[in-house]
Specification:
The chain is built from six helices and ten strands, in the order H-E-E-H-H-E-H-E-E-E-E-H-E-H-E-E. With 185 residues, the chain is α/β, with parallel strands linked by helices. The protein has a single domain, classed as Rossmann fold (3-Layer(aba) Sandwich). Strands 4-3-7-8-9-10 form a six-stranded mixed β-sheet, sandwiched between helices. The chain has a two-stranded antiparallel ribbon with strand order 1-2. Strands 5-6 form a two-stranded antiparallel ribbon. Helix 4 links the parallel strand 3 and strand 4. The radius of gyration is 16 Å and the shape is globular. The N and C termini lie close together (12 Å). 31% of the residues are buried.
Length: 185
């Protein structure tokens, strides 16, 4: 299962941002070009595992967008993008995101107390993005029904899950070592 995704991950280039080893893949970066068969494989797997009794699919700009948009079309569930830009709309919530290689502000709009959402993302590495978004959503009174991430690149997922009080479901796990991506069993 997910053989195309696994094979494409193992062919990924690895670059360094200081001490951080960053793999470059169409799911996580939009480059190089995405093989639609890989994306279809990923979307079909997420579709099979996601609950349908939610109000919104939520994902952070930019790389969750290629996941939540087609899944919205497949399910009829509206999507909501956590943006990198302030819009100043009523009820806008600012979120401070810290990852292994950057720190920035994200903005949540259009969600209300009582909404049920699935949070989706392309990769969990440090957990900074998920931690910030989930905590902000809960502070808003939004129920996080599920969290689904395509790629796990961390050995600290259990720590993240304890911190946010919720399981993070992933499709594949990888490790970057010796300048290569290794898909874990």
């Amino acid at each position: 299962m997910l053989e195309r995704l696994k094979e494409s991950l193992e062919r990924s280039d690895v670059v360094r941002f200081g001490e951080y080893q960053y793999f470059v893949h169409p799911i996580t970066d939009g480059i190089p070009a995405m093989d639609p068969r890989v994306l279809e494989e990923v979307l079909d797997r997420i579709f099979d595992m996601m609950p349908m009794d939610v109000d919104y699919l939520v994902g952070a700009e930019a790389m969750a967008i290629p996941l939540i948009v087609p899944l919205s079309l497949m399910t009829g569930i509206p999507y909501n993008v956590v943006r990198k830009r302030r819009y100043g709309l009523p009820g806008e919530v600012s979120v401070r995101q810290t990852t292994g290689y950057s720190e920035k502000e994200l903005f949540i709009n259009g969600l209300r107390k009582g909404d049920r959402v699935i949070v989706m993302d392309d990769v969990v590495s440090t957990g900074g993005t998920l931690r910030a978004i989930v905590k902000a959503l809960r502070a808003m009174g939004v129920e996080v029904a599920d969290i689904i991430v395509v790629i796990r690149k961390t050995d600290r997922l259990e720590e993240l899950e304890r911190d946010i009080g919720q399981k993070v479901r992933t499709l594949v796990s990888v490790e970057v070592r010796d300048g290569r991506v290794h898909v874990l069993p």
